[in-house]
Design goal:
Distance between the termini of chain A: 60 Å
Protein name (chain A): Thiol:disulfide interchange protein
Number of domains of chain B: 3
Main location (chain A): membrane
Helix content of chain A: 25-40%
CATH superfamily of chain A: Glutaredoxin
Shape of chain B: globular
CATH class of chain A: Alpha Beta
Strand content of chain A: 15-25%
Largest sheet of chain A: 7 strands, mixed
Radius of gyration of chain B: 27 Å
Oligomer: heterodimer
Number of domains of chain A: 1
Transmembrane segments (chain A): 6-24
CATH architecture of chain A: 3-Layer(aba) Sandwich
GO molecular function (chain A): disulfide oxidoreductase activity
Membrane topology (chain A): Single-pass membrane protein
Helix content of chain B: 55-70%
């Protein structure tokens, strides 16, 4: 009996090792969202390019991405070139300029190119709160029937794109 | 050509590490003296080869050799030269090389002292260190070589060092921290040697003690530096965030603290033998766990390196071989050990047992909080995060209890403590500390938590003084000659214990007596916070070596005093190469308070969001850390250990 006690640390460690193994390579950027399976919440936002009021009725009817970004966000600088690549492949992206200022956003898009079908200004971040966004960049996938199917936190790049693309249908 | 030599030298050192892992062990089992004696030269050659690689990588950084992929990713021709050097450990590959370099440094230190150990112990210790080195060297060479070339398309310039790391704190923080982490591998090697040779008597504890104290001192300083760096660089004004990677450095510290105390009992009284061995294994395992968490991408943290699943698998295998192997050896061998010495309930053994239990509880608390989200996710129960509220509410009471007992422990005597020795000073201290705390709390208008904390603080200070005084006043000689006769070990302990208390004062005051404000200010405006007047003088554009910045100038006055207290210049830096914005907070440090100013977002017109903190006694947190570090070094340098070396 006493002898088996000394095996406790070893067994404890093996269990921990198994958990680590299960966790390795898991996608830590996938974030669950209460909105998955629901429609995009109602909103009324001003378009950056046309200054028109845009609501949920103006959303595209084919599958698209909603991308939260801001000129204040360093990771968005990293993500931007890849979004341009996606736009070149014909993937529709709705940009939400999150907690940002208009003139700087315009300057950014003029300098770096505009990958977005349209860009909406969410200066106060209210729409971000409705969508449960915790930071930028964050991207949601909306399917053809208008339902949110996936939420991704952090930069989209060549490595994680295949997973996100799988939801885009 | 040089980078190839660096790579070659690493591969050679792996061969020597492998031989170091095998030859002395074969010599031990075959009872061959010649093979045992090979351990020292093998260690020294391995270490020299690692040194060569490290120097070559540093040279590649300093000479802007962008044909080396790692250099081109982490440096830039415009980077100031000291950052070029510290960029060596700015990414995963180089920091792993630093880790291996420091490991080989510890190995050589042991190798140079090997003659002070019995002739069949020293080589086995080195062989265990050889196994550890083999593991890390193969991790470095097979998954993360820093010498990979970008040929033939050599980039014109590099991608620059992460701006967060362009800072003095980051030049020194990783090496010091690694000195601590890696240093525990020496205690681990002694413990495993004790298991292999079956000599689980008091002697291994005596050999391991100075090494453990020394690495503990480094780890303490490393954590202190990290906390200080986070405070002034991250722009949040916090000094500890319970981030998974901070926890990863804190857990080995807690376990190492327990080990330090448990080694003392094992050395002096020959009890807790198997427990001390287990603690040594735990402490080192927790260091390895830290490395795993940072480098495998299983947890997201501000410290994480770019995640790579192959690296994760490799380091997990390394973890399983080293930790699993040693725990299995422990399970088989430690069961044979019998503790024969018994001790009384009031003896110092019992107090140190209490210390160990509480420290273990604290370690497990942090471990559970850190790994809980991971376990939850692995079992597909969803994603959760465990934040500061959990740690603060679970950790604080146990830690306070530990500090209360920390006051009494040093008074106790081995085996049995006569009650008269403890009761008198305790009663007196209790009254005295309660009174002092009451006066202080009433005078400053603090609450109950502050009262409890300050009572504990005064309690430890009083008891430490009583203990010292009773030691120096006994006997006929004067106080000063007797005080000088007390061993360094004792003063080390005293200093470290008082360091804990100083840190506690800092923590308590900074959390209850700090003022902060988020303000919207334009040049010409001023704001008044906690008796200080902050005047926004002007805003200017400046250009640094590899960034441009908006720099504000604030003059701070104390209310009613026309002379300025300080001029603060917080900056918002835009690093041109990486297009990354960094907040550079401005600080006026003081013994009793820090004025802390950081620029937030630029608002419309000339207005800026400005965050202002007045933090009281925040310096004490790190002052305490430095005292603990000095205490650890003092203990490691005790004359007892040196005398043994000369024998």
């Amino acid at each position: 009996m006493r002898k088996t006690l000394f095996f406790i640390p070893f067994v404890f460690f093996l269990v921990l090792g198994a958990i680590f193994y299960l966790q390795l390579g898991k996608n830590t950027q996938y974030m669950p969202s209460a909105l998955v399976g629901n429609k995009v919440p109602d909103f009324k936002l001003v378009s950056l390019t046309t200054d028109q009021l845009v609501t949920q009725n103006d959303l595209p009817s084919r599958p698209y991405l909603i991308n939260f970004w801001g000129t204040w966000c360093p990771a968005c600088h990293l993500e931007h070139p890849f979004l341009i690549e996606l736009a070149d492949q014909g993937i529709p992206i709705l940009g939400i300029d999150y907690k940002d200022n208009k003139s700087r956003a315009e300057q950014w898009l003029a300098q770096k190119g505009n990958p977005y079908e349209s860009v909406l200004m969410d200066e106060m971040g209210h729409f971000g709160v409705d969508m449960g966004v915790t930071g930028a960049p964050e991207t949601f996938v909306v399917d053809g029937s208008g339902l949110i199917v996936y939420r991704h936190q952090g930069v989209i790049n060549t490595e994680n794109w295949p997973v996100i693309k799988g939801y885009l249908k | 050509m040089l980078p190839e030599i660096g790579q070659f030298s690493l591969i050679l050192s792996l061969f020597f590490a492998l031989s170091l892992a095998l030859v002395p062990l074969i010599g031990y089992w075959a009872r061959n003296r010649l093979l045992l004696e090979m351990a020292q030269p093998l260690t020294l050659i391995m270490s020299t080869l690692v040194l060569v690689s490290f120097v070559i990588l540093s040279v590649a950084f300093i000479t802007d050799d962008f044909s080396v992929l790692y250099v081109s990713q982490n440096s830039n021709s415009q980077l100031p030269i000291w950052y070029k050097f510290s960029a060596v450990w700015g990414g995963h590959e180089g920091s792993l090389l630093l880790w291996v370099f420091i490991l080989s440094g510890w190995c050589s230190a042991v190798a140079l002292k090997v003659r002070t150990l019995p002739e069949n112990v020293g080589p086995v210790v080195l062989a265990v260190l050889g196994i550890v080195s083999t593991g890390f060297l193969s991790f470095l060479i097979f998954t993360s070589s820093p010498f990979v070339r970008l040929l033939p398309d050599i980039p014109m310039d590099g991608g620059d060092l992460n701006p967060l790391l362009q800072d003095f704190g980051l030049i020194v923080h990783p090496p010091v921290l690694y000195m601590g982490y890696v240093g525990f591998s020496v205690a681990f090697a002694f413990a495993v040697t004790a298991l292999i040779t079956g000599n689980l008597n008091a002697s291994w504890a005596r050999w391991a003690r100075p090494w453990t104290a020394c690495s503990w001192a480094f780890l303490t300083l490393g954590i202190t530096l990290g906390s200080w760096w986070a405070y002034y660089e991250l722009g949040w004004g916090g000094w500890w965030f319970w981030d998974p990677v901070e926890n990863a450095s804190f857990m080995p510290w807690l376990a190492g603290t327990a080990l330090l105390h448990s080694l003392a009992v094992t050395e002096k009284r020959g009890v807790f033998k198997s427990w001390t061995v287990l603690l040594a294994i735990f402490t080192f395992s927790l260091s390895l766990l830290g490395a795993f968490l940072v480098r495998s991408g299983v947890l997201t943290s501000v410290h994480s390196f770019a995640a790579d699943p192959t690296r994760g698998i490799f380091i997990l295998v390394l973890l399983i071989v080293l930790v699993g192997g040693s725990l299995l050896l422990y399970a088989i061998r430690a069961a044979q050990v019998k503790s024969s010495v018994s001790f009384g309930l009031t003896g110092r053994e019992a107090w140190l047992l209490l210390n160990n239990i509480l420290l273990t509880v604290l370690t497990l608390t942090v471990l559970l909080g850190t790994l809980y989200p991971l376990i939850f996710d692995a079992l597909d129960l969803g994603k959760i995060s465990v934040g500061a509220p959990y740690f603060n509410s679970v950790f604080t009471p146990v830690a306070l209890l530990l500090i209360v007992f920390m006051g009494i422990g040093p008074l106790s005597k081995w085996h049995n403590t006569p009650l008269s020795v403890i009761v008198g000073p305790c009663l007196l201290s209790m009254v005295l500390s309660g009174l002092l705390a009451t006066v202080l709390v009433l005078w400053c208008g603090f609450g109950l938590l502050a009262w409890v904390s300050f009572t504990v603080v005064f309690w430890v200070v009083c008891l430490s003084f009583f203990d010292w005084f009773s030691k120096v006043s006994a006997g006929s000689k004067g106080i000063i000659p007797r005080a000088r006769q007390l061993p360094r070990n004792y003063y080390g302990m005293l200093l470290a214990h008082l360091g804990i208390v100083v840190t506690l004062v800092g923590i308590v005051l900074v959390s209850i007596n700090s003022h902060e404000a988020m303000l919207r200010l334009s040049p010409g405006d001023s704001a008044s916070i906690a008796g200080y007047e902050f005047h926004f003088d002007r805003l200017e554009q400046i250009k640094g070596p590899n960034y441009v910045a908006d720099r504000a100038q604030f003059t701070v006055f104390k209310a009613g005093d026309p002379d300025p207290v300080a001029v603060l210049r917080p900056e918002k830096r835009m690093f041109t190469t990486r297009q990354q914005v960094m907040t550079e907070a401005a600080l006026d440090a003081g013994f009793t308070r820090d004025l802390y100013l950081s620029l937030g977002e630029k608002l419309d017109g000339a207005a800026w969001g400005v965050r202002i903190y007045v933090k009281s006694f925040v310096r004490w947190i790190w002052l305490g850390g430095i005292m603990m570090m000095l205490g650890g070094l003092l203990a490691a340098l005790d004359k007892r250990y040196q005398r043994r070396a000369e024998e």
